[in-house]
Structure formats: C-alpha cells, structure tokens
Design goal:
By secondary structure, the protein is of the alpha/beta class. It is built from six helices and five strands. The chain has helices at residues 4-14, 17-31, 52-56, 69-78, 113-126, 148-154; strands spanning 38-42, 61-66, 83-85, 98-103, 127-135. The chain is globular.
Length: 168
C-alpha cells in the first residue's frame, strides 16, 4: 500500500489537481441532500476536495478526518479547525452527529471485509436518522488510467475486492 504520509506533498498533483477536485466535489454534492447542514468527510486526504464542499454550499459545516498525519496537516491548513486525525474504523464522534457522511476512495484500501464493515458501520453510527452516506465502490475498475497507483498495483497478484458493491 502507498505510504500516504510520504505521498501527501505530491498527492494532489498526481491525481488531477484542482480540476479533479472540482469534479469530485460537484459529484459528492449532487448526492448530498440540499437540507444537510453538517457533513463528515472520512479519509479527506489533503482536503483539496473537502474545502470545496462548504464553499459550494453556504451553510454546510464540514469536518474532515484522515488517518495520515501528513494528509491531516495539509487538510487542516485548507480547513482550519475542521480536520481531525482519526481512524475510519473508530471515528471520534458521537452517535447521530452528521446529516451526511462521505468516504470517497477509501474502502478499497481496507485489508478485508471486516475492515470495510467497520468503516461502513462507523459511518452509519455517526449519521443522524435519515442521513445520507456517500461512498465509492470497486475502485479497481477505474485503474489503468495512467496514475502512479497503476504501477504500484501492477506487480501485485489479484486480490479479493474489499469494496465490491455487493459487499459494501
């Protein structure tokens, strides 16, 4: 797996920069109900997408969470006071706190079904009744697009897909 602390400084540039961040934020917000007021971005990375969410939707308060110390520092610079370092399998928030929870390109990083279940369970736990969870599935289907991750994964034998839609 990539070392996200090492990758943090070049992460945005290698993954499409601002144009991709804009597209991702637009896609996420298209799935979040207009009435949502409090959103959690789990695995927010550098915050390049996360910071766009409240900017695009006035009145939306956004909190970012990421496990990587370097990613968290970068995200905190983009969203001062709104980012915490946290393991997505054990989120440091009370029950039913958020109207929406987002975890984009996270589940494919989990080591297996138990971790996927833990992440999805935590996201559900912190959602208010009737809240919306937005996630991505089957990341592997989007590989071979010239990204640095393609080179990392090329030498690996095929493995079970932890973020397969039917499993999630």
């Amino acid at each position: 797996m990539l070392d996200y602390d090492e990758e943090a400084e070049r992460y945005d540039t290698l993954r499409g920069g601002e144009p991709r961040a804009r597209a991702a934020a637009d896609a996420v917000l298209s799935l979040v109900p207009a009435g949502a007021r409090v959103l959690l971005d789990v695995a927010c990375g550098t915050g390049i997408v996360t910071r766009r969410l409240p900017a695009a939707r006035p009145g939306l308060r956004v909190t970012g969470a990421d496990l990587s110390a370097s990613m968290t520092r970068m995200a905190a610079a983009r969203l001062p006071g709104a980012v915490v370092r946290a393991d997505s399998r054990r989120l440091p928030f009370g029950d039913a706190r958020f109207d929406a929870v987002v975890s984009v390109w996270l589940l494919h990083l989990m080591s297996g079904p138990a971790d996927v279940t833990a992440v999805v369970g935590e996201c559900a736990r912190v959602l208010r009744p009737g809240g919306v969870y937005v996630t991505t599935v089957h990341k592997g289907a989007s590989h071979n697009v010239g990204s640095d991750i393609d080179a990392v994964l090329a030498a690996r034998p095929p493995s079970p897909v932890p973020d397969a839609p039917d499993a999630v």
